[in-house]
Design goal:
Radius of gyration: 18 Å
Number of helices: 12
Order of helices and strands: HEEEEHEHHEHHHEEEEEHHEEHHH
Largest sheet: 7 strands, mixed
């Protein structure tokens, strides 16, 4: 086991309080790549109100035991949780949703634009074909509470407000937690995701402006893939913008060098020019490159 794997495994079943009402629950999962399984860290969040608690994201299907242990580590009983909320529709964030809903009956809230993939896992698999998708996503779920910009979920003494932040995915939303003044931003900050994974660079730029306006009055951000307790700074917004611009330049330079005939060569060269020489040509990196060429 690598050092990263050892460190991630040591975090399992833990929870770190990051604001008066919010706990970060670290979860480890593995992505299948051409170079073998790669360990990744993602966070779920537990927001505890006076009346009810809400779980924000839940990791992959294999993360289920660690999600339950993390809720208890945060000092909550499973019976205290009355809502599952998605920051977005990807399998590493909502893969464990189906067994949680089946076991505990939690209603699911997600942005309206996330319903398409959450309610049809096979469609997500076909349009974003991760090699081990079935191991990551347990199945389709019903979105009981479709959310839009400005919608709030009141937990009693604590509320979560939707801020639509697409770009990484069509259905991405950030959740502004008040009165704590923190923003659960999911994967809106591409620089923290540690790889160039997004499907709409223009939407990423617009989302950064939304986040920047929210942060202007002193709010702090929580990003799902940053190290626990996953508080990130203003710099992450600028770094994300730089990443998008760097990849855009790289894609167009790669196209001028290798043309469109060999898609793998185009993606590989763009990643190389953009500063990710070790990144594999995967469905997610293809989607990113396509997004800068105006392709679906």
């Amino acid at each position: 086991m690598s050092d990263d794997q050892t460190n991630n495994a040591a975090r399992r079943g833990e929870a770190a309080q990051v604001s008066p009402h919010v706990w970060a629950i670290p979860l480890t999962f593995f992505l299948t790549t051409p170079n073998g399984p790669v360990p990744r860290l993602v966070h779920a969040y537990l927001a505890r109100g006076e009346r009810v608690s809400a779980l924000v994201d839940c990791g992959t299907a294999g993360c289920l035991p660690d999600v339950l242990a993390g809720i208890e580590a945060a000092g909550a009983a499973l019976g205290d949780v009355g809502q599952l909320i998605a920051t977005h529709e990807h399998a590493d964030h909502m893969g464990a949703a189906l067994p949680l809903v089946q076991a505990y009956g939690w209603p699911v809230a997600a942005h309206t634009a996330a319903r398409r993939w959450l309610e049809d896992a096979a469609l997500q698999r076909s349009e974003r074909p991760l090699p081990n998708f079935e191991a990551l996503m347990a199945g389709s779920i019903t979105v009981d509470l479709p959310m839009n910009e400005g919608d709030e979920i009141d937990l009693g003494g604590c509320a979560l407000r939707s801020l639509y932040t697409p770009g990484h995915s069509r259905g991405s939303q950030s959740l502004v937690v008040e009165p704590d003044g923190v923003i659960i931003s999911g994967d809106a900050l591409i620089s923290v995701v540690a790889a160039p994974f997004y499907d709409d660079p223009a939407a990423v730029r617009a989302s950064l402006e939304n986040l920047r306006r929210e942060m202007a009055d002193g709010k702090r951000m929580l990003s799902s893939h940053a190290p626990s307790p996953s508080l990130v700074t203003w710099q992450a917004l600028g770094d994300t913008l730089t990443l998008i611009e760097r990849m855009e330049t790289a894609v167009h330079q790669a196209r001028s060098e290798v043309g469109d005939g060999d898609e793998d060569a185009l993606v590989r060269r763009a990643l190389d020019l953009g500063g990710w020489p070790q990144a594999a040509v995967t469905p997610t990196t293809r989607i990113t490159v396509h997004s800068h060429l105006g392709r679906p």
